[in-house]
Amino acid sequence: MAETIKLEVVTPQGAVLSEDVDIVTAPGYGGEFGVLANHAPFLSTIKIGVMSYKKAGDESQLMISGGFCKVSDNQITFLVESAEQGRDIDVDRALLAKERAEKRLAEAMRQAEHVNQTRAEAALQRSIARLRASGHQSA
């Protein structure tokens, strides 16, 4: 049996995931990174995107948004603003959110509203990550 690492995903609303897994891949601000069992300790900031993990050959994906990741003592812990299992994402809702965010972003750019542009960009990133995590092809 292959060695595993304990994966914990926690949001302000509580624990989302706690499992022993084979590998974790996550979107860090310095680039995507992967973690296996017995990885060296480190800290990373996390950006909006898709975190994937494999357990016994099965791959699962979560949409995560903004936070931190800590690896130590054969455990990887994500403290993130939000996390959603890919299989639980409402694709139609995510597509509508993506469309709204694209419209708001275009409007903010036309009016040179930097605050609204930043908010629209974040909303767009979240909707695209939801679509990717759900396995939807048009993300």
**Which structural category fits the helices and strands?**
alpha+beta
Q: Hey, roughly how much beta strand do the residues contain?
A: over 45%
What name is given to the CATH topology of the largest domain?
A: ATP Synthase, domain 1
The domain count comes to 2
The CATH superfamily label of the largest domain reads F0F1 ATP synthase delta/epsilon subunit, N-terminal
Using the coordinates above, name the CATH class of the largest domain. Answer: Mainly Beta
Separation of the first and last Cα atoms: 36 Å
Largest sheet features: 8 strands, mixed
Let me know the average pLDDT. 87
Contiguous runs where pLDDT drops below 50 for at least 5 residues: none
Series of secondary-structure elements, N-terminal to C-terminal: EEEEEEEEHH
Shape descriptor reads elongated
CATH architecture of the largest domain: Sandwich
Helix content: 25-40%
Q: So how many helices?
A: 2
If you compute it from the alpha carbons, what radius of gyration comes out, rounded to the nearest whole angstrom? 16 Å
Strand elements, count: 8
